[in-house]
Amino acid sequence: MKEFTLRLAATTLLLVGGPTAALQAQEGRQHTFSSGVLGEERSLTVHLPSSYDEQGGYAYPVLYLLDGHANAGYALTVSEFLAESGVAPELITVAIPAGPTRGRDYLPPNPSGDANSSGEADRFLDHLEKEIIPFVESNYRAAPFRLVSGHSLGGVFVTHAMITRPGLFRVHLAQSPYLIEAIAAPLLERVAMSLGDRAGSSFYYMNLGEEPNLSENYDRLRSLLATRAPGGFEWASDREDGVGHMGTRLIGHYAGLKGFFADRWTLPTATLEKDGGDALAAYVDRLNADFGYPVLIGESSLQQATQLFFSKQDIAAAGSSAELYAKYYPRSPIAHFLRANALAAGGAREEALEAVAAAISLYEAEPDESLAPLYQGMKQLRAGLGGGDR
What pTM was computed for the model? Predict the structure, then answer.
């Protein structure tokens, strides 16, 4: 029985080793409310990750997306792709639209500037901190882990927020911050004065395309980051050859999220190969500590870990991984099927029969054509365990 089960598990994992859910377009939930801070009516759209409804016990990091009316399409696709690839967690995305008040909202104050280079970004930050964020965290399962992303004037706002409200967001993504001289001069002065006084950990990412009018001040900002960034503050930057101002949005959003999450979130396969199930438990504990809340590990990562342990004939570790998978995703027939394989391989026949019965029941309740070969494998395993015909 052990040899049969391991061979079946290996085949199964080849079938499900990649992402298990197609990228989904999300319409989001729209909210409109009167802002006391701004003295006007404002709106936002909350886009929930695909697992949100089934994962009632878990909270999600929240990405606050500026110019959300224009940027949500690519930002949602990027976030879901990174999550499905096991590179980043799933995110709640709060798309905040901009309108005729965009310059006022995104530009920092500039006493010597005109209306095109000076705004009320601190008031908009108050709006975020005192109204939008509390609203989202009161009405959705939002983890105490926030990100903010903005392009052009939005990138200026993100940079200003990074300096003036260092604890508000953990991750700051600025694509092509619009650093023309009139805007850059006071902003870079504040960066020079404030960057070294920052406390706590934070991450800042910026990029720039082929934009000669922004290049000099972009390099000045890079120099300040390189020479004055304090301990615990991480930053990265990219130049995008052959890319114009608008094209940096998608590239920079992807690179910024990947730059922050990849080394933290990606499954440490080399360590798993060496230390087995203990390494998986340590990986989960490290993520919980780093992010500050009980994280939801992605399905692709749990499948990858289980596949690795089965391939090394480490049944105990495969069992631990499958147990964790079933704990995080109790409605996943794949999770219960893998758990059944591990139990059967370890000689726990009755428990294996219960697990494979659960897998079959879940699949039959919601058949998925892409998992049809897996369903045949479930029935084959049940028959092999003496639980009925195929």
Answer: 0.91
